[in-house]
């Protein structure tokens, strides 16, 4: 099969590596890709939101399957766009329809979906310019901290946790009246603060059947000990030590099954990944968010832990027989540690030469923000590399990644040495 993968991060490098391990893949193209994906296939200079160019490329290159990495094109409706072309509508698109992607694209849609299908989540109400005053009154009834969420996509920055009612009211006004997050915050979800530990579960579904993939816990803060600004993710571990059979059974029965049934009842076309973010509140799993794609950096440990053929699973998914598939999972623990540019998530410099990758033997290095420039590999983003290792336990896996990172150099290199620290 000729496969076209959309995206350009370390997540897509992990997809590219896994897809090209399959004997079913004869040629992989990545649009637009990065220096890491180029090791597994051919990068093509098309942006993930250039739907007409993607369509043309798929037709001209006999593409047999399209796999979508990031949320943006999914929320913008790439699935529906491609399926509307009679010449392309037989080609599997791995990713949900526009309506399905709204589970990530609109917090309000996701909360309504959960309420309708009895999926445990924080109590909430939603507000716009029309009922702003009621929003203030709602805040008055809450006990801080109070969680404010911009309804739409806001580059991962749209969630505010306010310590006082005054702060919450000021932020609500900023979001709704002063467009703090642009159009994304014209509607705001205010919800109850959940106290607990977060974890993530990944599901592959054809809309009727589902398979649960390895779980993960990520580390979003820039600083060690979970201090400092939020980032796209500085590392993650799998499996999650506290996610035992009892908690997993609750996750499956209270969330995954009602989610898949909900998609069916609401006629939401969904053939792809669902990434569910949870809060473990005293042993009870509450859904914090849905994402309509795999996570980054979660994919960099989840896919290496999958031993079976992902492309074969995709074919089964597209044919509506995912239930026959057996997803084989490596029992070892895995960790990935992000190597970032100094200054990230605020301002940082690009174009620094990266050396030492050849001496890394015990880890898999996935490229995030990298590019080739005059024959040299240079930094090209905040998160530069994701270094993944296996171990008999989380600590061994993290230690291997940290040791590998010590062999890699570029000016301003930064990483967290304490990924998985709570599980020592
Ligand atoms: P989200 O974009 O919905 O994943 O939210 C971003 C982050 O905000 C989450 O990863 C949590 O750390 C935090 N968060 C979101 N909702 C809640 C909540 N109801 N209670 C506590 N923390 C939350
Ligand atoms: N690691 C968080 C995300 O992919 O959304």
Describe the protein in words.
The protein has 424 residues and is an alpha+beta fold. It folds into three domains: 2-95, Rossmann fold; 129-186, Dna Ligase, domain 1 (2-Layer Sandwich), CATH 3.30.1490.20; 197-423, D-amino Acid Aminotransferase, Chain A, domain 1, CATH 3.30.470. It has twelve helices and 23 strands. It has helices at 10-20, 51-60, 71-75, 78-83, 98-105, 107-116, 132-141, 165-176, 245-265, 299-305, 310-318, 394-406, and strands spanning 2-7, 27-32, 42-43, 65-68, 93-94, 124-127, 146-150, 159-162, 188-192, 197-205, 210-212, 217-218, 221-223, 227-230, 235-238, 272-281, 284-291, 333-341, 364-367, 370-373, 376-379, 383-391, 413-414. Strands 12, 15, 18, 19, 22 and 23 form a six-stranded antiparallel β-sheet that branches. A hairpin with a 3-residue loop joins β13 and β14 (227-230). α1 (10-20) runs parallel beside α10, α5 crosses α6 and α7 runs antiparallel to α8 (165-176). The longest helix is centred in the middle third of the chain and has 21 residues, at 245-265. It is globular. The mean pLDDT is 97. The protein binds adenosine monophosphate and glycine.
Summarize the structure.
The chain is of the alpha+beta class.
